[in-house]
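Posted in: Protein Modeling Q&A

I'm a second-year student putting together a small comparison for a lab meeting, and my supervisor asked me to include a predicted structure for Lipoprotein. I've never done this before, so apologies if this is the wrong subforum. The sequence is pasted below exactly as I got it from our records. If anyone can share the structure token output, I'd also love a short note on what stands out.
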Amino acid sequence: MRNTAKITTAVLAAGALTLGLSACGAGSSGTDGPLIVAASPVPHAEILTYVKDNLAKKEGLDLQVKEFTDYVTPNTATQDGSVGANYFQNQPYLDDFNKKNGTDIVPVVTVHLEPLGLYSHKVKKADDLKSGATVAIPNDTVNEARALKLLAANGLITLKAGVGNEATPSDITENPKNLKFKELEAAQTPRSLDDVDAAVVNGNYAIESDLKPSKDALVLESPKNNPYGNFLAVKKGNEDDPRVKKLAKLLTSPEVKKFIQDKYAGSVLASF
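Accepted answer (user: helix_wrangler)
Welcome! Here is the predicted structure, written out as tokens:
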């Protein structure tokens, strides 16, 4: 299932590049034109749009935001120069992506954390999940491991010691509720809530689906010592692009921190 999902995602990503980015190349080349940034719609594109509308002009930054709903295209577009930067991912995901795809994308500045959560339309507490319940989890390597670690941290399963960011259901050593796992593309997990007993959902997809992580999650990741902060990223060698430096400064400004606090009310947490 996982291999099929990855192949499908790659094909969709290629199509998205052809359809959505064919006119973007000129804007991200050199350092004088607009800076085009690929981003997930929520909250990344919303945060960037706030910067574009309220802060960028004062810094002399021509910022353009391109939205993508998958976790592949923003990196492939950054690597091939179709966009100048992206904002959607965390370090474990990027490390895995670079290793598997031979890319050399690097982080510039960490902006926020979207806590991963367990949600359900059928139970009000995680302990209420029945024996044999089906739980949907993301099928990409890092987010699947992250989901399993969330369940383990809350006593629903036990994982092998030291399993790290490549954990799969086969690494479960104890499963007292005999939970069954349905591996789905991350974007599909909130849509599965009517068909499964619970689902582990990435913060951005939860918000897009009108879920409020701070209120609706049965269990939620702790921000303490959390390695999954989301950052602005570029192809290696572009870190010193003046436009990138301006954007990095604006994304970690007091104005952006206040915007995140006011708009997301604890469902997105500023990391600076």
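A couple of things worth pointing out for your meeting: Confidence is low (pLDDT under 50) at residues 1-29. The two ends are 38 Å apart (CA to CA).
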